[in-house]
Structures are given as structure tokens and as C-alpha cells.
Design goal:
The structure holds 2 protein chains of 2 kinds. Chain A is α+β, with helices and mostly antiparallel strands. Chain A has 5 helices and 4 strands. Chain A has a 4-stranded mixed β-sheet. In chain A, helix 2 packs across helix 4. Chain A is rod-shaped and about 155 Å long. By secondary structure, chain B is mostly helical. Chain B has 3 helices and no strands. The longest helix of chain B is centred in the first third of the chain and has 40 residues. The chains are: A alpha+beta, B mainly alpha. At the A-B interface, helix 1, helix 2 and helix 5 of A face helix 1, helix 2 and helix 3 of B.
Chain lengths: ~210, ~100
Amino acid sequence: MGMDAKLMLALVEELWEKARLEADRIREEAREKARKIVEDAKKRAEALKTEKLEELRLRVRRGLYREYALKKLELRKRFTLRKSQVVKELLDAAVERALEMVERSDPRYLESLKRLTVEAVLQVGSDDVVVYCCNSRDREYLEGVLNDLIKDIEARGRRVRIKIASEPIRCRGGVLVVSADGRVFYNNTLEARIKRVEEEFLPVLIAEL
Amino acid sequence: MVRVLRESERRAERLIEEARKDAEKILAEAKKKADEILKSYLEFDEKALEEEEARKLEAEVEELRAYLEKKMESFAESVERRREELIDRIVGEILGLR
């Protein structure tokens, strides 16, 4: 082979080598871009999927929410009702026991009658009051301890004139105290106290359990 | 010699041209695949999802039922255990002895 032919062969070889390298570069670059396109698509799809799934889940939940919220509410209602029944039984037993004490003029009831009277008189806040009892037995008892009651009230810084009404009122125990002018009263009968216990004391007791 | 060189140049250009066409094809396929991925990811079985959520909510209700049942049992036990003491306290409140 002559020199010219050798030179030409070398040139052609170089040309081909460059062309092959360029073609490989173009293909590799395309493959790299393609990988990125697919990768980005996966990332975007994943983000979109999470977003759409959350949206859909919320929509579905909203649709179902009412039905299940009602079920939960019903359960809580039933629970509260059962709890109230347990507490009501306790209250009934306590009322029965208190009334038994009243019936047999238990010393604790007599002490109670004095305390309820003092409390009611102090609550009325008048210096001239009338005490209404539930029966003649209670009235006679209070008349007997009237001076002690007045002293007890005086010891608490109040001077008061107390009249025990001769006519009984309709109640099971305790007293109703009314200011002499009839404007202020404090109901400390057992019926009123039971109601107050039910409304004010029992919720505290339940919370403790 | 010049003719041979030109012919070689043309063939080299064709090689590069083929590579460019291949690149376009690779990219077009990638774009198609990307579209398919996006489409497939956004397909949801709404019915299945609804059933799954309903199951979850039902489980929540059951959990609450069990919790309240246990709480009720403990409450009733506590009341039963302290029954006399509690009645005494309520009697005391009714009679104003506390």
C-alpha cells in the first residue's frame, strides 16, 4: 500500500471513530433523558396519587361520617343512660334510708332538722322569719330547741326573730323558711334537697368514681 | 481519494442521523411510558376505598363500644364496692349533715 492509501485509510478510520462516538453519545444522552422522564413521571404520579387518594378518602369519609357519628353518639347515649341508672338506684336507696330516719325520728334526723333550719334562716337573710315544718312532730321538736337555734344563729353573727308556723306544709321532712314580709324564702325541705343533691352533688360524686 | 473521503463522510453522517432517530424513538417511548405511569397511578377503585374506610370506621365504633363497656363495668364495680359509703354520703347531703 502506498503512502496516500495509508493516509486515506487513517483518515477514514478517524472519521468513522468520531461518528461512532458521536452516535453513542447521542443514544446515551437520549437513554439518560428517558430514564429521567420516567423517574420524574413516577415521582409526580406518586405525589398526585397521594393527593388524590387523600381527597377521595376525605370525600368517602364525609359520606360515611354521619352514619358512624350517629352510631358513636348512640353508644355514648346508652353509656350515659346506664350510668345514670346505676346512680339513680343509689339515690333511691339513699332517699329511702333518709326517709326511714325521718319516720322513726332518728337522732340524726333531729340534728338534720336543726341544721336545715339554721341554714335556711341564714340563706333568707331577713331578721324576722317564719319556719314552716312538714308535721306537728317536727314543729314541736323545733319549738323545743328554738332558743338553741337562735343562739346558734347569733354565734354566726346574725340576730333574728324566728316564728314557727302552726300549720304544716306538704312535705316529708326539713323546713321551708320565709321572711316575715313573705318576699324571700329558702326551701330546705327534703324534697328540695333531694332535687339539689340530684342536680348538684351527684355529678360531683359520679366524676369521683 | 477525495471521492472515497466524501463517501465516508456521508456514511458517517448517516450513522449519526440514525443515532438521532434512535434517540427520538427512545424519548418518545419514555414519554409514552411516563403518560402510562401517570394514568395508571391515578386509577383508583373507589368502591374498594369506600369499603376500606367503612371497615376502619366500623372498627372505631367497635373500639368505642369496647372502651365504654369496660368503663361501665369498672364504674358499676366501683359503685358496688363503695355502695354503703356512697349511700351514706348522699344521705348526709340530703339531710344536710355533711
